[in-house]
Amino acid sequence: MPSFTSRQFVLLVLLTLAWGFNWPVMKLGVADYPPLAFRAISIWLGLPVLGLALVWMKVPFRVPRSAWPELVWLGATNMFVWHACIILAVKALSGGRAAILGYTMPVFSAVIGALLFSAVLTRRSWIGVGACAVGVGLLLWHELTDLAGRPGYVALALVAAATWALGTQLLRHTRIGLPTLTLSFWMTAMTAVVMTVLSLLFERGPRQWPGPVTWGSILYNAVLIFGFAHAAWFYLARGLPPIASTLSVMFIPVLGVFSGALWLGEVVHWQDWVAVALMMVAIASVLWPSRSNAAKA
After folding, report:
1. 10 Å Cβ neighbour count for 113?
2. What's the Rg (C-alpha) of the chain?
3. CA 20 to 30 Å from 164, out of 80, 107, 194, 270?
4. What DSSP character marks residue 76?
5. What string of pLDDT tens digits covers the 297 residues of the chain?
6. What is the Cα–Cα distance from 265 to 117, expressed in whole angstroms?
7. What's 78's DSSP letter?
């Protein structure tokens, strides 16, 4: 198994922190501002940062005309649905709960890979799928038994995760012969347009200027999520051992839950504690490399 360089280690830690802490940051950002507009502004401001990363890494921007239909489909499954649905879920649910639900994506990805792409689900993977189902059931049960619960938004977060999982599988099997960062830039650009159109269509009423807290959340997302996180993740994905990305993915919802509890005073119910543990088991079961794969690495 390859060892970390100091740069890889620092980037991985910063990436995990940026994504994990973003859940309460998003919750703050949409508290008094339309969620789709919040997402659109964040992406538009983050796009130049991502573009500068391409320039710095000397990655081409050009996409052949023949590749655009597939690229639009990749954008829809990887980003359009995810960003629209998850930001609406964050508005209605606690940031920690949305984080847990959003990061069911790797489990959905394993199932979709088995159903659509002939991937083999091992016994360990099925255990993970079961753990994920129980964890989601606990969260749904709490929303259904709470008079203020919003189970529909739980479903919305799951739709976001499942669609992102499909997009991840499609991206792995794409025949577009371009750097992943090029695809990411144009998917992000298209997502900015889609979020803007959705906001104009569905978020009617007077458009107020974002307040200081909202602007802080927008800038956090623009620079650290749509600028730094995209570029850093694709840089790391080519050089890190699988176990490193697994640990990162597992730790993000945990950070989301506990940072939300500390910063926003979100109540962490026993269902949340158990769901976090079950999701970590589920993600580890489908992402953690087997002994044979580790030996090959």
Report:
1. 21
2. 19
3. 270
4. I
5. 345 577 777 887 888 899 889 999 999 999 999 999 999 999 999 999 999 989 988 999 999 999 999 999 999 999 999 999 999 999 998 888 788 888 787 778 778 888 888 777 677 767 777 877 787 777 767 666 664 567 788 899 999 999 988 988 888 788 898 988 899 899 999 999 999 999 999 998 777 888 999 999 999 999 999 988 877 776 665 555 544 555 556 677 778 888 888 888 887 778 777 877 887 777 676 556 555 444 444
6. 43
7. I
* Identity of residue 127: I
* Length reported for the chain: 297
* C-alpha 177 chain-centroid distance: 24
Measured between its terminal Cα atoms, the distance across the chain in Å is 5
Q: Is 54 left (phi over 0), alpha (psi -120 to 50) or beta?
A: alpha
Distance CA 60, CA 174 (A): 18
Residue 21 sits at the vertex; the CA angle it makes with 17 and 25, to the nearest 5 degrees, is 145
Amino acid at 115: L
Tokens 């996180």, residue located: 229
The DSSP code for 238 is T
Distance CA 131, CA 102 (A): 15
Tell me the one-letter amino acid at 237. Answer: A
- The amino acid present at 145, given as its one-letter code, is T
Rounded CA separation 179/177 (Å): 7
Identity of the amino acid at 242: P
| Residue 28, both tokens | 């703050």
